[in-house]
Fold these 2 entries.
Entry 1:
Amino acid sequence: MTQEREKSPVRISLLGCGTVGGGVLRLLQENKDFLGLRAGGEIEVTHVLVKSPNKPRVAECKKEWLTTDPEVIFGDPRVDLVVEVMGGEQPAYDYIQRAIAAGKGVVTANKLLIAKHGPELVEQAIKNRTDLAFEASVGGGIPIIRTLREALASDSVASVHGILNGTCNYILTRMREGMSFGVALQQAQELGYAEADPTLDVGGHDAAQKLVVMSMLAFGASVNAGEIMVEGISEIEEVDLQFADRFGYRIKHLGIGYDRGERVELRVHPALVRKNSVLANVDGVLNGVFVEGRALGPCLLVGRGAGDMPTAVSVVADIVDVARSRIEGQPGLATRGIQLKHRPVMPIEEVETRYYLRFAVGDHPGVLGHIASALGAESVSIEQMVQEGRALEADDAVPVCIITHRCQEGAVRRALKAIESQVFLKGAPRILRIEDV
Ligand SMILES: NC(=O)c1ccc[n+]([C@@H]2O[C@H](COP(=O)([O-])OP(=O)(O)OC[C@H]3O[C@@H](n4cnc5c(N)ncnc54)[C@H](OP(=O)(O)O)[C@@H]3O)[C@@H](O)[C@H]2O)c1
């Protein structure tokens, strides 16, 4: 049976042939010789499902593969493996379910879908003894899923910190160099890093989807994504980057996860990280994931988190793995290693870290004392406090910036509420978390 299998190719169909799908077809062609050897048999493309058949495609996409009819793929029992690179929730979700139900292997790059339906799809794949592989859904070309699932199968992960969105990292890097948020965003769009509608990126939700997927592998956690606190970068101002620099920090947009016993601590937000820390120096459009294993200690992965070829590297690596497992008569082996349990997400009020607080205040005597005593009343103690300059006009605001010692977020929020009612305050206080990674 296995010998027969080795002689026949593994037949794959792509659902989608845009940025990622085009890269996948190019890489399959460029590396054809050794991919076949690594998979243990030839990988043959049979169909490519698209919406508009007349759109221009990469040269490697043969016209005869193109179809707009999914039934051509699902009705063909010779198709061993479905590669979902179309994106979105529907119809991708239905197609993946159908492929798994039919015992076909599935490779997907779809973070939205895995974040929303991953645990249930993994369970379905395990039940059907088939593969569901999703390396490209987090960190583009960075092999973070494989690292967590395979290399760290022996260890228990204490925490993960990821720069998971290249657009946010690019914008924050340019802002640190003096560019405004708007100009940096426009540049990111012109360079093809940001979507035409960048809301998912700069609002933090793209990173949140990736964090949910990572926490499946890092902590074996199936979570309700709605419980995760998500903040983007659009509120970050130049003055925050300057203060951070002065205190010895850089601001990075992070997806953060900690194993907290029965619960997991998951949050997505901009954070101050020390200038000499490993993640502080992952700049521009690069992604980086810092994993702390209980036995391993620190481990850092850095690379290109998006783009046709980096993402295709991850998708094709999954195709090779899934193809090999089928050729060797062991489909579903890798997916069976993913063991998930529902874990509640720790409420943000209970999260303990250090905080950067910035207030715009009227330049009156006693203001600093008021702020300090409101924080003190909630047992939030101050590590550093800076008041910048003097107001030129009586009504002008001056910034006051505070770094706290470690405390609960609930206490900080209660203190800020008390301060917000004070007449000296000119605008909402800025609260940023500090991560010691
Ligand atoms: N782009 C990246 O750098 C990157 C990185 C990591 C992960 N991903 C993930 O990879 C997936 C694909 O992203 P992408 O950037 O390659 O998207 P894309 O360029 O927009 O391509 C989507 C492809 O899917 C096809 N398609 C969409 N809806 C369809 C439908 N209902 N029926 C048939 N075909 C349909 C489109 O057909 P037409 O060509 O005919 O319009 C197109 O070929 C997404 O899940 C994304 O989150 C992307």
Entry 2:
Amino acid sequence: MKEFSVTPLGTVSPIPTMECNCPGFLVKCGEEKILLDCGSGVSKYFSRPEDLKNLRIILSHLHLDHFSDLGNFVYASYVYHNLGMLDSKVKVFYPYHHIVNDNIIEIYSKENNYMEFDYYTNLNEFNFGNMKISFLRNVHDVVAFAIKIIAYNSSLVYTSDTGYNSDLVKFCSGVDLLISESSLLKEHGLVKGHMYAWEAGKLAKETRVKKLMLTHFWPIINKKLYVKEAKEYFQDTIAAEEGKKFILRKGGF
Ligand SMILES: [Zn+2]
């Protein structure tokens, strides 16, 4: 059995700070790696050619805070392939509706022989190594998806950006780790298309997850405030911490 883990690489939005990057989570199961979103700053965790081996990038949606570092992966792949330092291709999955001319994915994928691009819908299910990946359409102002990954009977959901909704409750039900956006605090007033920290707590409680990890913080607000608000509903809540690995399933025989 291989180790199944997730490491937060980016936790703030809309712009990185000196300490924190825009959204990104690296999920690993043995040799296989899935990067969920690649916001600004996330690519600095992939500075060696071997870091791009066995890597798939899944973009939850095409808001820039969630994919602005994709160009760094495209250029690094191009250079490493030309120098003979990398022979495998990074595969990128993106939401289906963006197949139109002259969007940025189209530009990146054009005459690109060193990466693969493909789209997905909420009907798709992928397997990558021992990981099974599925999707749920979110409530957001562009087409966006929550992503579930299951390996060895352990599971996580990364909500990405979404308003609270009943489909999400069904989708997250019983997972071991819920990585939920908590863009807002009560004091921010009424905003649609994102969740409040207390709603993330409510979602965790309703779905009986084992652990709630909050993310998508406003850069200048102390993360402890989000955790405090979520804990009104769900005690086992932590704030995502960049570079700190969370092990869902230990490796072994
Ligand atoms: Zn968004």
